[in-house]
Amino acid sequence: MPTAVSPADLTTAATPAGAGRGERVSPRRLRAILSGSVGNLVEWYDWYVFSSFSLYFSASFFPAGDTTAQLLQTAGIFALGFLMRPIGGWMFGRIADKVGRKQSMTLSVLLMSLGSLLIALTPTYQTVGIVAPVMLLTARLLQGLSVGGEYGVSATYLAEMATSRRRGFYSSFLYLTLIGAQLLALGIQLVLQRVLEPTQLLAWGWRIPFVIGALLSVVALYLRHNLDETAAFTAQPETTEDQRGSLRVLARHPRAVLTVVGLTMGGTLAFYTFTTYMLKFLVNTAHMTREAATNVCFLSLLVFAALQPVFGALSDRIGRRPLLIFFGVGGALGTVPLLTALSHTTSPLVAFGLLLLALVIVSGYSGINVIVKAELFPTEIRALGIGLPHALTVAVFGGTAEYLALWSKGVGHEAYFYWYIAGCIGISLLVFLGMAETTKTSHLNTDPAAEQLD
User: Is the confidence at residue 55, as pLDDT, over 90?
Assistant: First the structure.
């Protein structure tokens, strides 16, 4: 049975971020970070496979109609799943701050596996009628509750397990595995497209990835059961116990909460547009084949995943704020022309180049937003402080991205959605310009035990 990491297991000297390079990182710390990251990958795979395979299963849960209408109904359920994320952010954030990061992460993956298994076993609309979309919605709400807590707790765990000079690098593993989850979902889709006939995929093949997700959750459960607790959590004085995970205490940090909202607004909208929604966009707007669109998205996401630790490590050297400003300027000015060009291209190669350029810009946010948010809050409310405002913002902006995109297309003004994204990123840019450099003001620097595990 793993033991919690005590302050005695670590050196107590706190070194400012950016000071010195090349410190030895123990195998125990690396094992904790990698185990936490793999569990994160499995949970986000369960979340993203819904969107990746909705092109195949949307007709199974709704009455016959045109493709855009069925996708719009499925996107509506996708958006409703996001409504549970603030509840999950509050619930699991509170558990993480009061009971422990490890316990919260273990519970969330259990809930996610239930949602995936329920989708895999749900009968079609043609078989049970309205019961089918109701069951699909129930499963998605369970997954939304789970993943709503996953971000804040995983972000907290990785930030607290990281060494002070490499916090940006190690915290970037959250988005590395988050993108890796999309790659896994698309990779399984590519395999199934090659081994099954299109009619088989539409009839029953789409259930396979949800079964895989439920099985992978067993692996994630094992990994999380054997995690070390973070030293920052275990070293808290007993006097803070009543304050841990408290909304009353969180209310004492309004600037940090509003900063999380401002950071997340444009970032999550850009992220979901150029990753989750892009497969549908290339099929439904650029009129590529499903196979060609899947290849373009898979290859671009592969490069995108590799960029996350690069941007994270860069932030350890030059700071977080310059990279956020890079994203803000590039996203505000580049989103409309990039999406316009993507909507008119018929070449997979050109689409790959345009999408990759967009994802390089998005990396200025995705590669470092985890550590920026973790640095804003003290230990006793860190998971709640990251998770709740993040989940609320994602629910409003990320969760509605696909729906608004498809609605804009349905009314014949798809370009409205492009300008909406650019405007939201512009608002985030104002936040980036007005915020302090978090490497210099980080609450993580005051954690009682933040350096090297034995």
Answer: no
What are the structural domain ranges in the chain? 29-227+252-448
173-195 helix and 27-52 helix, angle to the nearest 10 degrees: 50
Report the candidate in 360, 361, 431, 331 with the shortest Cα–Cα distance to residue 389.
431
d(CA 50, CA 82): 13
How far apart are the C-alpha atoms of 123 and 126, rounded to whole Å? 8
The pLDDT > 70 percentage for the chain reads 88
Report the Cα 320 to chain-centroid distance in Å. 19
Q: In Å, what is the CA distance from 281 to each residue of 144, 271, 290, 409, 413?
A: 23, 14, 11, 10, 14
Judged by DSSP in three states, 85 sits in: helix
Query: Global pTM?
Result: 0.82
Which of 104-118, 157-171, 303-317 has the largest mean confidence?
A: 303-317
Residue 191 neighbours by CB distance under 10 Å:
12
The separation between the first and the last C-alpha atoms of the chain, rounded to the nearest angstrom, is: 17
According to the model, what pLDDT value does residue 33 have?
81
Q: What is the pLDDT of residue 186?
A: 81
* Whole-number Å distance between alpha carbons of 141 and 143: 5
Q: How many degrees, rounded to 5, is the angle at CA 263 between CA 425 and CA 85? A: 105
Q: 152 and 390 in contact (C-beta within 8 Å)?
A: yes
Tokens 């070449």 found at: 347
Closest CA to 162 of 83, 260, 232, 88: 232
d(CA 207, CA 60): 11
Which tokens in the block code for residue 24?
Answer: 């030895």
Distance CA 294, CA 288 (A): 9
- Distance of alpha carbon 110 from the chain centroid: 18
- The residue that leads in pLDDT, 74 or 414, is 414
CB under 8 Å to 215, separation ≥6 — which residues? none
CATH topology for 29-227+252-448?
Growth Hormone; Chain: A; (1.20.1250)
Question: Residue 255: how many CA atoms within 13 Å on its side-chain side?
Answer: 6
Residue 444's pLDDT is 87
Question: What is the pLDDT at residue 231?
Answer: 84
